[in-house]
Amino acid sequence: MRHPQRLSVPIHLERNLPEPLQDQLTAQLRRAIVRGQLAPRSRMPSTRTLARVLGISRGVALAAFERLLAEGYIAGRHGSGTYVCAPANARPSSAGSGETRIDLRLDRPSAHGFPLAEWRAAWRRAGLHRPPLGGPPPAGLPALRAAIAAHLRDTRGLELDGHEVIVTAGYADALRLLLRAQGGHDPVIALEDPAPPRLRAALGRLGTVLPLPADGWGARTDRIPAACDVVAVLPERGLPLGTRMPLERRQALARWAADSGGLVLEPAFDGLFRDGPGPLPSVLALGDAWSTAMVGSLAEVLTPSLRLAFAVVPRRLAGEIEQVMPAGPSITCQLAVTELLGSGCVAGRVAGLSAQYEAKRALVRQTLEAYPHMRLLGARTGAAATLLLPVSVPAGSVAAALRARRVEVTELAAYHHPDAQPGNGIVLGFGHLDGLSLRRALHALTRTLDEHRLARRTAA
């Protein structure tokens, strides 16, 4: 591949990778800027020149430049061209010199293939509306609430006859309003264990969190602690183990809620990027409308910076919640998200991410299932997997060796309640990585496992 004019680093675009060409180009230009291979204040080639030299369409080059502009790595000067930003304006992905650090921790959504044109158009049209004098309704714009309900119907098969959708300014607000209405100022919450640390921390700020043990089939419904107000589960894809709760346990949860007067809480988009069979009926679909709820956001699909979330609450709690609603998202934000949902942009983004993640999961499985003395969990759905290690290989030792190779992972112990027995493993979040970075991370991981004397299977 020839080098672009006035560009001192090679660009290699592979058309057989799962990442679109614009994502590969963005990642390689970003890496060159972070490493200093593209000097601050140096002039970038034009998109027309870049497209001609690399043999790609100009639209691919434009999309890459737009991403880098949005991230602050480059800046345009009217009538002069595009320049690399000074280090203070850029956002490097690692500190210090040397190779870029690769972060395999969770809660890092993918930016690959982001629908930038649709995003801009939705916000532009939303800005044309005159805001109401009294602000949006406390529970959110009716059109947005209807669009969220329609999306849940199309993706989860939910008919919200006994529930109301309430729009909030963030995930934490949605949890707080729902739990306060159900359990007062110190609700007792049984949380599936292990579970994402961020979810445990959010619930812990609102009440007393008790562990609900999980096995290979998800949360143990026969181990629900006594006197719980709320049971929080992840039935479609229990992170970090990737478990899927069978129908019998979902029905048992619904019966517990009906008999105890408690509330079952589940994520609205649990198992969103599943490849294969569709989701089983949610607990909300199986249970009494008085005792089931959901909380969700578009952080994984669009961006965590979008300050908008929602709760699907029993109608018995909706009126009480609306009376204490804090200020919600701006009217412009609500209008833009309404259009993104109604136009099919969100559904298209989900489909695109699902295809990306499946290709990356295949690479993870191909690499790590070669070790017979370990178990790889959760690598059939979503954008994360857990590697269970033998007791002779402490997870802390593997994590430390990876950090020395500039690869960050999370130990499985961080996903467990402090009173629970932690597992020995590491959790890998890879959905946000480009193909080259994922390959480099997996290479570092296999070298580390080899150094810990974990044998691989040999070819027949």
From TrEMBL:
InterPro entries reported in the protein's UniProt record: Aminotransferase_I/II_large, HTH_trans_reg/aminotransferase, PyrdxlP-dep_Trfase, PyrdxlP-dep_Trfase_major, Tscrpt_reg_HTH_GntR, WH-like_DNA-bd_sf, WH_DNA-bd_sf
Top-level taxonomy: Bacteria, Bacillati, Actinomycetota, Actinomycetes, Streptosporangiales
Domain HTH gntR-type residues, every copy: 19-87
Domain of life: Bacteria
Gene Ontology molecular function: any one: transaminase activity
Gene3D superfamilies per the UniProt record, alphabetical: Type I PLP-dependent aspartate aminotransferase-like (Major domain) (3.40.640.10), Winged helix-like DNA-binding domain superfamily/Winged helix DNA-binding domain (1.10.10.10)
Keywords in alphabetical order: Aminotransferase, DNA-binding, Pyridoxal phosphate, Transcription, Transcription regulation, Transferase
Name of the protein in its database record: GntR family transcriptional regulator/MocR family aminotransferase
Species of provenance: Nonomuraea rubra
Stated family: In the C-terminal section; belongs to the class-I pyridoxal-phosphate-dependent aminotransferase family.
